Amino acid sequence: MSRHIHVIGIGAGDPDYLTVQAIQALNDTQVFFAMDKGEAKSDLVALRRQICARFIREPGYRFVELPDPKRSTDLGFGGDYCEAVSDWHAARARVWAAAIAAELGPDGVGAFLAWGDPSLYDSTLRILDAIKAEAAELDFTFDVIPGITAVQALTARHRVPLNEVGEPVLITTGRKLRAHGLHGSAVVMLDAECSFQVCPPDTQIWWGAYLGTADELLVAGAVGEVGARIAAVRAEARARHGWIMDTYLLRPAD
């Protein structure tokens, strides 16, 4: 027997987004590892605890909160950005490896709860792969439980299809949108700069923040008409909560 890790996608915020498979994995877990990102984001850990309290039938699990290494805020384009992210992931891998070794018995079951789906703009899988490559003495296996993404939640809440008929959709970041512009439909994530403002004013936008939670915010329309409103709503919400998770779908005008 060896240690086993579940990487569980817990959806975009609504506990009802959890799948039956995710609930089964929760009930199989003894130790939940969570990143401590400071007081501003403490409610993200609290939401994970609430999900466990709701769905785990026989409480006997425990949470282990891990200090999150600081990530460089001086991130430009190209190699500097990739190098900074790689350094951050390596630092996380060291913290995680030490915690798994110390907190999980040789045949124990642990879990990381990934917001949305572990495959989409989430570092959990890359970090676990790095641990397996760099810490061969730490014997563990892991599996992945898919979850509802912010992209799915966004289009569902706005009641719009993700793609146009026969057309592709790009999933990108605000940094890439600013660098390359908009060419066809695109979902934009990880955007702290309201990068949709670089788009032509007749570009259609469907924006959402805190999707699936009681604090959910939704705005839709042409960028030229609602862009300033989105920027203002976003700034106010971030100041009030101390953090924000938002995403949006863009579509050029016909």
List the helices and strands and how they pair.
Elements: E1 3-9, H1 20-27, E2 31-36, H2 42-55, E3 62-67, H3 79-103, E4 109-114, H4 124-134, E5 140-145, H5 150-158, E6 170-173, H6 174-180, E7 186-189, E8 204-209, E9 217-222, H7 223-241, E10 246-251
Parallel strand pairs: 1-4, 1-5, 2-3, 2-4, 6-7
Antiparallel strand pairs: 7-10, 8-9, 8-10
Description:
By secondary structure, the protein is α/β, with parallel strands linked by helices. The chain folds into two domains: 3-145, 3-Layer(aba) Sandwich (Cobalt-precorrin-4 Transmethylase, domain 1), CATH 3.40.1010; 150-251, Tetrapyrrole methylase, C-terminal domain (Methyltransferase, Cobalt-precorrin-4 Transmethylase, Domain 2). The chain is built from seven helices and ten strands. It has helices at residues 20-27, 42-55, 79-103, 124-134, 150-158, 174-180, 223-241; strands at 3-9, 31-36, 62-67, 109-114, 140-145, 170-173, 186-189, 204-209, 217-222, 246-251. A five-stranded parallel sheet has the order 3-2-4-1-5, sandwiched between helices. Strands 6-7-10-8-9 form a five-stranded mixed sheet, sandwiched between helices. The radius of gyration is 19 Å and the shape is globular.
Helix share bin: 25-40%
Mean pLDDT: 91
Spatial extent as radius of gyration: 19 Å
Strand order in space, largest sheet: 3-2-4-1-5
CATH homology superfamily name of the largest domain: Tetrapyrrole methylase, N-terminal domain
Q: Major sheet: size, sense and barrel closure? A: 5 strands, parallel
Q: Give me the CATH architecture of the largest domain, please.
A: 3-Layer(aba) Sandwich
Return the CATH class of the largest domain: Alpha Beta
Compute the number of strand runs. 10
One letter per element, helices H and strands E, the order comes to EHEHEHEHEHEHEEEHE
Q: Given the helix and strand composition, which structural class is it?
A: alpha/beta
Distance between the first and last residues' Cα: 58 Å
- Shape estimate: globular
Count of all domains: 2
CATH-derived topology of the largest domain? Cobalt-precorrin-4 Transmethylase, domain 1
Number of helices: 7
Q: What share of residues are in beta strands? A: 15-25%
